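Let's practice the habit of predicting before peeking. Look at the sequence and jot down your guess about where helices and strands might fall. Then scroll down.
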Amino acid sequence: MSGGARVLAFDLGASSGRGIMGIYENGSLRVEEICRFKNEPVFSGGHLRWDFGRLLSEIRRGIDKAGSFDSLGFDTWGVDFGLLDGSGRLIEDPVHYRDGRTEGACEKVFEIIPPEELYAATGSQIMPINTLFQLIALKNGGGIPKNAERLLFMPDLFAYALCGNAVCEQTIASTSQMLDPVSKEWNRALLEKLGLPSGLLLPTVPSGTRVGTLKLKDGSTAKITAAAGHDTQCAVTAMPSQSESAAFLSCGTWSLIGTELDEPVLTAESMELGLSNEVGADGKINYLKNIIGLWLIQECRRCWNEQGLDIGFDGIAKEAESAPALRCFIDPDAAEFVPPGDMPARIRDFCRKTGQYVPETVGEISRCVYESLALKYRFALDQLREATGKSFSALHILGGGSNAPLLCRMTADACGIPVIAGPAEATALGNIIIQLCALGCVGNIAEGRRLVAETQPVVRYEPSPESDIAKSYERYLELLNTHNRP
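Done guessing? Here is the structure:
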């Protein structure tokens, strides 16, 4: 490691965004929060959309507030995109992945390409939110705009808006269900078979690619660097471990639990398990499962606050801590939990329909969510063990979920392995590490992980051998089997 640098990471999640400055000097790394802002979707033109103009304004304010720095990078949620016309203008605000337009899109694709063939070609967990199905929905719902000449995923769209240069970074591209995970190039034969215009897509570039230059308020300039555009891959970059037996859980609005592999797993069995092959920042495959995560708590909180309860996340956790344990469970990935709405009512309805105790209070509902997430994490780890033959020595919880002691403790107990919680800002830290590698301050991601381990706090949770939640796993499996039975 050599030199010093200041790099700015903009980490945009599905509910909020933040600008984090990484200051690297004398072989050490510290971070400072520059700004934080809400990311609230809007309804426009009949669809749920991201308010791109407002988000860009928040980003520009954060850049001005940050002062001088050497590099800037973006990471965001996956799958969503904007379309540019021939003049380079955004045709319309990007549509939110929770919008209902993709209903029935998977079935349309399966009429042409069987799911096993689609999975073998892309390695992506088949989910209606994926870019491929969004494009099919757009094509079948009035057509892809005739003036559309370029598709940019969200992190690349923000970078383009600042410097006018367009790239397509590999990790964000691998969320699309259109990328070949072996060649890491677009599967253009697949797109042609589905009647989609592959000319919208730029060739992919690796994480750490220089995008352009940004002129700052003080007259200096900063590089714009394509970090790992997908926030999950940034979080994994900051995992404070080099062990091949470590599993990761990027825990925020979504929970993505997985392990690093050298090659993708493209079998029909892997598809049936609902596992996904995504490209990591170092070119490895992050073999993982997408699980609806803290979105459930976020949406419950929104509803409770609208009802006048005025409760924060810490208050919700305290209520959950004091509520009776293991009275009822949900499948976090049930279809009714995907769109915005009255989440507490949906949780009660799920429990009622499945013949369980029906939770009523804040504590009962939130405890049901936390316990169900912990048990679903064990379910996913078991699937990963089955598909890879790997044994896991620890689970690293990365991101905002690492700040939830109850969830971390439940997860350690449910999974029966130690949980290493932190860093909480893993996504921004991974973004920062990739930028430092691009600047030559850090040699590679392995060195970056050592740097994170040396400078960022973590908390270790050991599993309890007498845990009641672990004893409830068979009961939870029966719920999943019953609920998901055709």
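How did you do? Residues 399 and 425 are 5 Å apart (CA to CA).
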